């Protein structure tokens, strides 16, 4: 049985009776097959009993919480069962030694940029980042890398905008709170992706707190931020693009709030449905010569990082071939 | 490690086994990079084990070695249950290591490898194999203490190996 993510949008209680996990609300009590759950994403107001938490911890299931705007709040990250002292030391060494850190930080930005270029080509916009990527090569500080990254992103959004329908332009990428529909959509998806990457890291020996492009103190799971540079264009932007161009997401799926523009509940449902579909869809992996899901690609990216850290093979970020 | 029966010898049976399966796997395993929890293969082995051999003394731990089950008699019998024969050499060396270990503790034993899926058994004695075991132990030490893993080498067992995506993805 392949384990699947469980998303809870409604309000209720997660509880455990004997060896069964239940979700209960006014509609009744529904058993959940724990062996089939990979991780849990909670958007509703959900109470979790400590027994349920113990059970989830025992099964190594990460639970992610989102606030009612759909932003990531935090995760219940069970005690690690996969630990490698040696790998943690190597991870830290790659952070502490300037050259090593720069190499990885640049790799994340480079991979992200290549994937943005790939998207623009798909969307038939003429733009590339060769100039910026040249500068990236000669960057000597993390702040310089960050600057290049910011400029790439700006150019990317401007180019992408040329193809987006009126009313769904990104114009100026705004976060917390998003000021328009497209920003709301991208932010919602980014939060979800970030949480998923945390789950994948949990299932490896990588320490989620040691990162390279982002500072380890920036967020608790800063390595997930690094890895998301690669996957935001490949996963989030493509889904967002499709949703608005195919008119699955329309104006009525957003609402104004004093906090900016937000997704309605129906909007969230639509996005999550598309997101799940996308992540469980497979592509043929050229090296493994088999089909792997898009979600699995994140795990493979973690493995590539491990190989880099232990000195087996230099990390080359995923550049979407599909 | 002080409470180990042989103070200087704390290599696990699995490590000797992995030496003959794949040195890369041995390195990953001994450095805490494990994947077995995701392998159906391992679960199947456990299942077979519980079904067939319910009445024996199971999972006997002696220091670093963990024997599937033991039958006591004039000569102690060490039993190991294995899935298939693709890495027979690895199983034999693992068993040989157990016998070597037991001998150091003054226990005479022989080993029986079970292949329930093939309905076969194989008996193994230590006679003359000490040197081979010692060589293997030395090699395990060398690989474990290396700062980086040996480069993976593609072989047919890679396909059913839990590390496949790590090595080749
Ligand atoms: S995949 Fe192949 S090379 Fe890698 S650990 Fe397994 S057997 Fe060794």
Automatic annotation (TrEMBL), chain A:
Coiled coil: none annotated. InterPro entries: CRISPR-assoc_Cas1 (IPR002729), CRISPR-assoc_Cas1_C (IPR042206), CRISPR-assoc_Cas1_HMARI/TNEAP (IPR019858), CRISPR-assoc_Cas1_N (IPR042211). The keyword DNA-binding applies. CRISPR (clustered regularly interspaced short palindromic repeat), is an adaptive immune system that provides protection against mobile genetic elements (viruses, transposable elements and conjugative plasmids). CRISPR clusters contain spacers, sequences complementary to antecedent mobile elements, and target invading nucleic acids. CRISPR clusters are transcribed and processed into CRISPR RNA (crRNA). Acts as a dsDNA endonuclease. Involved in the integration of spacer DNA into the CRISPR cassette. This is CRISPR-associated endonuclease Cas1. Belongs to the CRISPR-associated endonuclease Cas1 family. Homodimer, forms a heterotetramer with a Cas2 homodimer. Its EC number is 3.1.-.-. Its cofactor is Mg(2+); Mn(2+). The keyword tRNA processing does not apply. Keywords: Antiviral defense, DNA-binding, Endonuclease, Hydrolase, Magnesium, Manganese, Metal-binding, Nuclease. CDD domains: Cas1_I-B. It holds the Pfam family Cas_Cas1. GO terms for molecular function: DNA binding; DNA endonuclease activity; hydrolase activity; metal ion binding. It comes from the Archaea. PANTHER family: CRISPR-ASSOCIATED ENDONUCLEASE CAS1 (PTHR43219:SF2). Mn(2+) binds at residues 149, 214, 229. GO terms for biological process: defense response to virus; maintenance of CRISPR repeat elements.
From TrEMBL, chain B:
InterPro entries: CRISPR-assoc_prot_Cas4, Dna2/Cas4_DUF83, PDDEXK-like_dom_sf. Mg(2+) or Mn(2+) required for ssDNA cleavage activity. Residues 13-168 form the DUF83 domain. The keyword Chaperone does not apply. One of its GO terms (biological process) is defense response to virus. Its cofactor is iron-sulfur cluster; Mg(2+); Mn(2+). This is CRISPR-associated exonuclease Cas4. Its EC number is 3.1.12.1. Belongs to the CRISPR-associated exonuclease Cas4 family. Pfam families: Cas_Cas4 (PF01930). The keyword Iron applies. CRISPR (clustered regularly interspaced short palindromic repeat) is an adaptive immune system that provides protection against mobile genetic elements (viruses, transposable elements and conjugative plasmids). CRISPR clusters contain sequences complementary to antecedent mobile elements and target invading nucleic acids. CRISPR clusters are transcribed and processed into CRISPR RNA (crRNA). Keywords: Antiviral defense, Exonuclease, Hydrolase, Iron, Iron-sulfur, Manganese, Metal-binding, Nuclease. It comes from Thermococcus chitonophagus. GO terms for molecular function: exonuclease activity; iron-sulfur cluster binding; metal ion binding.
């Amino acid at each position: 049985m392949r384990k699947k993510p469980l998303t809870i949008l409604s309000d209720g209680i997660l509880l455990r009776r004997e060896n069964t996990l239940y979700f209960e609300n006014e509609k009744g009590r529904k058993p959940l097959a724990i062996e089939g759950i990979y991780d849990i994403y909670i958007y509703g107001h959900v109470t979790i009993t400590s027994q349920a938490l113990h059970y989830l911890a025992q099964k190594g299931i990460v639970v992610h919480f989102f606030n009612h705007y759909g932003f990531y709040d935090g995760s219940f990250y069970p005690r690690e069962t996969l630990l490698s002292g040696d790998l943690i030391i190597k991870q830290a060494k790659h952070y502490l030694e300037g050259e090593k850190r720069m190499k990885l930080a640049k790799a994340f930005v480079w991979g992200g940029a290549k994937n943005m270029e790939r998207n623009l080509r798909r969307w038939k916009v003429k733009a590339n980042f060769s100039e910026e990527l040249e500068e990236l090569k000669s960057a000597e500080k993390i702040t310089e890398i960050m600057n290049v990254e910011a400029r790439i992103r700006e150019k990317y959004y401007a180019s992408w905008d040329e193809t987006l329908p009126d009313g769904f332009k990104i114009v100026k990428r705004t976060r917390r709170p998003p000021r328009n529909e497209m920003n709301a959509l991208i932010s919602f998806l980014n939060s979800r992706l970030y949480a998923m990457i945390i789950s994948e890291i949990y299932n490896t020996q990588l320490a989620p707190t040691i990162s390279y492009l982002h500072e380890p103190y920036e967020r608790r799971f800063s390595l997930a931020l690094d890895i998301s540079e690669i996957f935001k264009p490949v996963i989030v932007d493509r889904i967002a693009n499709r949703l608005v161009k195919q008119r699955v997401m329309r104006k009525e799926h957003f609402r104004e709030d004093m906090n900016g523009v937000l997704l309605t509940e129906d909007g969230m449902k639509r996005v999550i449905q598309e997101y799940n579909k996308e992540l469980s869809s497979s592509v043929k992996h050229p090296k493994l010569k088999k089909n792997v899901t898009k979600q699995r690609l994140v795990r493979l990216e973690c493995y590539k990082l491990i190989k880099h850290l232990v000195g087996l093979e230099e990390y080359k970020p995923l550049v979407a071939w599909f | 490690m002080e409470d180990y029966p042989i103070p200087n010898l704390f290599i696990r049976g699995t490590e000797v086994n992995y030496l003959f399966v794949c040195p890369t796997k041995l390195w990953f395993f001994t450095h805490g990079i494990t994947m077995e929890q995701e392998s159906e293969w391992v679960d199947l082995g456990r299942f077979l084990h519980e079904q067939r051999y319910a009445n024996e003394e199971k999972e006997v731990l002696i220091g670093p070695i963990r024997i599937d089950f033991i039958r006591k008699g004039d000569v102690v019998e060490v039993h190991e249950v294995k899935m298939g024969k693709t890495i027979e050499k690895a199983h034999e060396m693992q068993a040989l290591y157990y016998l070597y270990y037991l001998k150091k503790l003054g226990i005479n034993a022989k080993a029986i490898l079970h292949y329930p899926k093939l309905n076969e058994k194989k008996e193994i004695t230590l006679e003359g194999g000490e040197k081979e075991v010692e060589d293997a132990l030395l090699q395990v030490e060398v690989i474990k203490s290396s700062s980086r893993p040996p480069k993976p080498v593609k072989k047919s067992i890679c396909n059913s190996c839990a590390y496949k995506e790590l090595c080749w993805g």
